[in-house]
Amino acid sequence: MGQTPLVALQRIGAEANRARGNVLLAKLEGNNPAGSVKDRPALAMIRRAEERGEIAPGDTLIEATSGNTGIALAMAAAIRGFRMVLIMPEDLSIERAQTMKAFGAELILTPKSGGMEYARDLAEKMQREGKGRVLDQFANPDNPRIHYETTGPELWQQTAGRITHFVSAMGTTGTITGVGRYLKERNPAVRIVGAQPSEGSRIPGIRKWPPEYLPKIYDPAQVDELVYVSQADAEQMCRRLAAEEGIFAGISAAGACWVAQQIAATVEHATIAFVVCDRGDRYLSTGVFPA
What we know:
This protein is α/β, with parallel strands linked by helices.
């Protein structure tokens, strides 16, 4: 897990980027064992809760998820010997649900109208009723900590300290908070940029939370700028990454790439890295890719 490749875009925006002296780099987190950036915090949250004596193999774990964390937790629970119950809005892709079940997790689907907020509330209710332990990726400091300990150092080393901008989709905000803190400690001038959905857009893995549901792990001091991306732009970039770069990525990763391209159009001699959160095969049933 970790030490994922960092690859340069070769074609998308290449002419303009060469003229400006910019390099755009994609961190391929889909290369992790369960296929996403969420593998890092999932295993870290379970291992460290075990180390603190909060959980033990055989216990039931509960988590609300939009997909990738659920898949990663299902894998980690299978490795460590836990029963895993995942709560997910019913409108998310069937590939994600099938993968969770393949790892042995039990799945509870919640109404589309309630979104992730309803799923999170249900997880907390089940914990209060004694049905299991919620790891809570949205408030668990082990989430950003693992990115501070692994993802951030990898980006710094892979760019030989030349990174000037880091772009990440914002869901739980664990990645951007942990990586942002690490990179800012190494060079306060590094710009940390969050990709968020524009009004009316529904992009799996990218969220704009209501204030009462804002993840407790989020540290706005680590984020210099928020850039909004539309669902249409993210989906178009998703197809372009596959067809033009050979990077089969998910929609949130494509949203981060779109934001990285917008930044590249305004700067010179920059090294801009963005996170490819997962792989495109988790989105085939959504229709984003041509049949």
